Amino acid sequence: MIGGFFSRLKDALTKTRDGIVHKVQSVIRRHEAIDEDLYEEIEAILLQADVGIEATTHLLGRLRERVREVRVTDPEEVPGILKEEMGEILSAGSENPPGLPAGPHGLELGGLQPAVIMVVGVNGTGKTTTVGKLAARFKGRGLKVVLAAADTFRAAASEQLSVWGKQTGVDVVRHGEGADPSAVAYDAIKAAQARSADVVLIDTAGRLHTKTNLMEELRKIHRVVAREIPGAPHEVLLVLDATTGQNAMQQAAQFSKAVGVTGIALTKLDGTAKGGIVIAIKHTLGIPVKLIGIGEGIDDLQAFEPQEFLDAIFNNQSNNGS
Amino acid sequence: MLEGLAARLQGVFSRLKGKGILSERDVDEALREVRMALLEADVNFKIVKDFVARVKERAVGHDVLQSLTPAQQVIKIVHEELVQLMGSTQSRLAVASRPPTVIMLVGLQGSGKTTTTAKLAYHLRKQGRKPLLVAADVYRPAAIEQLRVLGRQLDIPVSAPEAGQTGRSEEALMAGRLSGQVADAVAVVRHGIEAANRFACDTVLIDTAGRLHVDQELMDELVRIVREVTPHEVLLVVDAMTGQDAVTVAQQFKEAVGIDGIILTKMDGDARGGAALSVREVTGRPIKFIGVGEKPDALEPFHPDRIASRILGMGDVLSLIEKAQTAFDQEKAQQIEKKIKQQQFTLEDFLFQLRQMRKMGPLEDILGMLPGFGQMKQLKGMSVNEKDLVRAEAIINSMTPAERSDPGLLDSSRRQRIARGSGTTVQDVNRLVRDFQQVQQVLKTLNIAKKRGKKGGKARKGFFPF
């Protein structure tokens, strides 16, 4: 259960033995008092985890404030405070909206009429793979899924999705290369309604958020979906590569502006990247992380739990992940 | 969101103005801004630290102290150091004395290897080479298909696992992957080289599977491929958007397989590309190309000075210090500045600026590069669509000289003529004229503000003499 996931997440996050906390702790061991030098080193650690200048400055500010207010003198207490402050950012405003049943992974599924989930992002972050894994997961929960291969640009993208479709036994709606992605989305919704499917997952082409015309295309998909089903898309997931640096802020801001991102799927967390950028994004833009990918297996796409995420970052030395 | 380094530095230095001497503390203050800019551009933290220390050493020297414009001097040093760190333009690829030349592309998933492999083949063919693509990414569903499609589009042969027997489908591969029986990448590469010999192709480009640098098994596979074919060139493909982890990635690939060069992809976005500096510093290898789009020809040689400006986010300042000297017709630029000052800026001048801009390469920071516009905060962060610029140029081209200098002449019949002439609509023409008039308005108010500032003794003397 959680224990299993917890330890896997921890494994994934501590693979290089230099998770945030490990560094913080080794820094702390070298300090007897909480001084400027300590703050500076903590700043370095956060920046190197891609937390970004703004959020790092905020975190350090809070840390200083609390150290001053509560008259903390023992450096050992610093990690705990830092963890709380990071948790504050990550979990702020993340309560589930009342009355609506949350689907697998805590995703918003509306009233299942069908629910529409749109997956967007820049090139190469793992959108298609994420869609495939979500499909498998939904199917496993007994939900009927239709996949929309709306990436009509990248050579062989629909083939890739079709492979996932076959793998998971899920219908894929696809058009030829270069077709209008909105038309694919439309057809997928119609197909889902005809087959009384529960969920439509729309895989869109990767696009840089600076390409005005491609963002316009994305808006059109969103418009078409919203016109066909009121309230849809119920989720717009921005797939973000954990190795991405500060540019992720721009990505999140621009995609949000275009199609109203409701959550982030942070992929490739099984590398050495810390994905600290999600703290910056949540801090500045208020967009929550909903999913994390910690491996290539189907089960390695997981719901994001701020507390577990932080526990995994911060508790790498104890093994009591029960 | 991100305020340009230039603007911040100007803020710092305007406070220094009149002091005459640049103390260590002043330099420190300026360098703090440089540090922030570098970190925001994703340059690795440790590299930033060393870099700033080095610049400081140089800046607190006497050539800064004796300089009349300390601000320009410091920026110049920062820029020079950055360019130097980045190496020279070096987009030549190795050529084997005995063909085929084998070039192998490696990198993380999603960094753009497959697209880049095709682009590189296209580039080499333009140079008269005869390339063959090898699809050695045997894991990713549809990766092989993607390369095959690209090869077909470009009319470049592709050697893929069992390429002849297309019956071997993606499904089979996927199933193979799940059951642990994948086509052996080493064998695929071996076949590829045989095919190259058979078809008399002189260059083999190997697209390998994306892998996390911590995936020992897959890293071993790379090592086996290298051992099998001894590539003449191993290129690490790095996403320009990569954050702090770029250092670790580059390090691991370098240690495992050795790297001869780097290709930086997705530079057509707005990532500042600090990762370039990180990977360059860690591997000590040159960045050879940058990917600037999804089309096959969107691969350019790497220019250190351009990316240095981009990392610093200070195209505007450098345009004057460095680029303007070469790319701009200096005299003309000064004329325009004068005109801006005297509120005689016309559409003709605007057209000149548009054309100059093209010469300068990437469209990022474009407004900042316009002479006279660089300092205007109001214009910062405005997004520019390349198509709009093309359209604007076409519209102005369709105007008579008289109309260009006096848009007041443009009645509706003239506007219709211009729209027809430029292949646009009257609405487009209207919009351009309206925008232009707004710019004039802004310039006017700025000029007034500046004059007032001067009287009050608080003029912010920047890099432009107006």
Helix content of chain B: 55-70%
- Any low-confidence stretches of chain B, pLDDT <50, length ≥5? 163-181, 316-328, 360-383, 453-466
Main beta-sheet strand count, sense and barrel state of chain B: 8 strands, mixed
- Enumerate how many helices of chain B there are, as a single number: 21
Q: Cα-atom Rg of chain B, whole angstroms?
A: 26 Å
Shape of chain B: flat
Report how far apart the termini of chain A are: 9 Å
Number of strands of chain B: 8
* Number of contiguous helices of chain A: 12
Rg on CA atoms of chain A, Å: 21 Å
CATH topology of the largest domain in chain B: Rossmann fold
Average the pLDDT over all residues of chain A and give the rounded result.
Answer: 83
Q: What are its keywords?
A:
heterodimer, A: about 325 residues, eight-stranded mixed beta sheet, 8 strands, about 50% helix, elongated, disordered C terminus, B: alpha/beta, Four Helix Bundle (Hemerythrin (Met), subunit A), Rossmann fold, 434 Repressor (Amino-terminal Domain), 21 helices
Describe this structure in words.
- The complex is a heterodimer of chains A (322) and B (466).
- Helix content of chain A is 48%, strand content 13%.
- Chain A is of the alpha/beta class.
- In chain A, strands 3-2-4-1-5-6-7-8 form an eight-stranded mixed sheet, sandwiched between helices.
- With 466 residues, chain B is an alpha/beta fold.
- Chain B folds into three domains: 3-86, SRP54, nucleotide-binding domain (Four Helix Bundle (Hemerythrin (Met), subunit A)), CATH 1.20.120; 101-315, Rossmann fold (3-Layer(aba) Sandwich); 320-460, 434 Repressor (Amino-terminal Domain).
- Chain B has helices at 5-16, 24-40, 45-59, 62-65, 70-86, 113-126, 143-154, 170-178, 185-198, 216-229, 246-257, 274-283, 304-312, 315-327, 330-341, 347-359, 366-369, 386-397, 401-405, 412-422, 426-455, and strands at residues 101-107, 131-136, 158-159, 203-208, 233-239, 261-265, 287-291, 299-301.
- Chain B has an eight-stranded mixed sheet with strand order 3-2-4-1-5-6-7-8, with helices on both faces.
- In chain B, helix 1 runs antiparallel to helix 2 (24-40).
- The radius of gyration of chain B is 26 Å and the shape is flat.
- Chain B starts with a helix and ends in an 11-residue tail after the last helix.
- Mean pLDDT of chain B is 76; it is low at 163-181, 316-328, 360-383 and 453-466.
- The chains are: A alpha/beta (322), B alpha/beta (466).
- Chains A and B meet through helix 3, helix 7 and helix 10 of A and helix 2, helix 7, helix 8 and helix 11 of B.
